[in-house]
Amino acid sequence: MSEVGMEYSLKGVMRELLSYKSGVASLLILIFLIGLSIYTVTTIPPQKAIAMWRGENNMWIENPRNAAPEWIEYFVHKHLPRTIKVDSREKSFGIVKAKTPIPETNITQIHIEMSFTYDYDDFPSEVNIFFHAKYNASENAPLVRLYWVKPDGTKIPIKEFNMRDPNQILYLSVDQSIYAGITSWLMKEKHIKAAKTVTTQQILFGKLTPSLSQGKVEVEKGTYKLVVDATTYNKGDDVDLKLVVYGTVYGIAGTDHLRRPLIIALLWGTPVALAFGLTASLAISIIQLFIATISGWYAGIVDSIIQRITEIYMIIPFLPFLIMMAAFYKLDIWTILAVVIVLSIFGAGIKSTRALVMQIKEYPYVEAAKAYGASDARIITFYIIPKILPPLVPGLIGSVPGFVFLEAALSLLGLGDPYLPTWGKMINDAYNNGALYKGYYYWILEPSFMLILTALAFAMLGFALDKIVNPRLREM
Amino acid sequence: MSGNGYLLEVKDLRKWFEVRRGIFSKPLWLKAVDGVSFELRPGEAVSLVGESGSGKTTLGKTILLLHEPTDGKIIFKGEDVTHLKDKKKLMWYRRETGLVQQDPFGAMPSFMTIYRILEEPLIIHKVGDKKEREEIIYKALEEVRLTPVEDFAPKYPHMLSGGQLQRVAIARALILRPSLVVADEPVSMLDASVRVEILNLMREMQESRNITFIYITHDLSTTRYFSEWIFIMYAGHIVERGPTQRVIRNPLHPYTKALLAAIPDPDPENRKRFRDVPPGEPPSLIAPPPGCRFAPRCPVAMDKCKKEEPPEVEVEHNHFVKCWLYV
Predict the structure, then answer these.
(1) Which of A7, A378, A386 sits opposite B124 (nearest CB)?
(2) What's the Cα-to-Cα distance from B107 to each of A296, A356, B104, B294, rounded to whole Å?
(3) B1 to chain A nearest CA, in Å?
(4) Which whole number is the average pLDDT over A68-72?
(5) Domain limits of chain B?
């Protein structure tokens, strides 16, 4: 301890911290992360976050699957499709609905036209139609005919069917009968035999040129129309539908394979990572500090016992032990945190701190305190710990990223919290779904970026503080 | 107080430190203080003089129970305090005694303000409430002339000079109004210019408060500023003790004589005078020589000196010496 007599006031440390570039940068990042955490926890309470992450009640059904974040456009220089939703129940521009009852029968003819503009440079990822019909299931179900009208007026019959369920969903892009219908229409009307690789959406949104047979197709921009002709057979029956044209980009973080917006995990990962890292690091450092101080101060038998326990702890393989615990008991994140703390309190840090305590307890000021009657507990808490705490703070801050990464690593191994969305779980999902193989780079890069940002902030803060409490490291 | 009027009686006090060389080897004993006896009345100041390793600091700390005495007795105000197990009694003894250390920088917790440093003993002994404590602290700072007190109180130790810090240390030692203070070489780390000032301050406070003062030093020249008694220590024994003036004018023990002769004198007349310093070094305290411990270095040693330990003899009134020459 060469810096005996150095004083550390919070104000002085802050002032000095701000004189280092790394100090300023780390503080800015930390303020951002803390702000993000506060925003997240206040706007999305944990229960809601868990429900959202589970996707309760099919809440994400209208989101595209594996959509990239919107800002990806700046890299590909294309206007990528957003998700378009058109609902016949809404009265808005481009939606026409007409009901014509046939006199002297219970039959009603319903005609719906829904138009929307499509001016993106790429095809949509999926097209689904959600019906919301009203009819008596024991009677005749409505007959529905669907047509697709292209900007040039070409009308493609999509399907003609009797409804099977009032909330029937038509998965246009995966429905084999629809695909067969429109390819045969293409053959008959345009004399084009589409290649096997051409998808339904490509026929619906593409220019119908002979190059389709080579599998090449361009987007046709303009106003599209979905025309529905429905016949209902009972009074009071009605047919409504919602057309969802799924984009390939979504929000600022994209979506995953279960259509969940990744922003939820990114946002919720922040408070979880900060809380996990800081609690682990703080609790471990402080408990170690007290154990080491007691060991060094009392010496003798107490010291021997603590040192032997420490040596046993140092031999226990930490990570395998933790993995075993997490695998057997499927722990939630706070239990994992507790296990991490319990497994670390007798860590190697005790050895160095104890050495420091044994040195400090011989200092004249400690002897003076004994001479005026200070008790052991008072000397430990008010005389020794304040002396050894400042040099330990940089290490404490610097060890935060380790615990953040530990949580991520456990999640990556599938041993993380089963409910809460975290960065590690996001990477785990991405890994399980072959994100890198399929080219969903954003899925891995986003949580990795957050992890690195957090680690960087704490590491830089630790280095800057180290320079302050260890003046030998100071830059000239 | 006991009937004999002594504040402190030390009887055949020993402090041996255990020295182990290995788990299975026989423990050896380092006899830092080996059979010391003396008495002090209230308000008396004594200088404990000896060279490094003579056991004078150990004696001082053992008297304050900072070391557990190995053998012998310490009687304070008629109470046997040698092995205080009772916490209440120990706190009473701590309150009745004070310590001023050698290194004023090391003696202060660097992370506390001067105010807090002085408040600590008061908090520990539950003296007064916050307001009364403030009064006591300001008064204590005034007494050691660290004025204006409002300027000094909020400062940290590193903002003060050595002399100023030693004043704080004195204030801290005296803030509980003790009746016995041990000052362990309080001026040896200070600049020569402030030494006399600090010594005078201590003397003043000692006299005004009638404190019994044990002043530990290796510097005979400063003792006359201070004390009415002088004890000369050598290798764990007090070899000579008596009133200061008498011991300095008429040293009896050969070691005292040698010490006095070794005092540097600024008179240029003396620059060529040969200083008759006894050859050799103090003996090992683990295996001290039999007989008189100064015998191997003593210029007038006799055969007897090397075989038998000399008794303490009162040569004049109150002037004791532990030497075969005077038996």
Answers:
(1) A378
(2) 20, 18, 5, 34
(3) 22
(4) 93
(5) 8-111+156-326
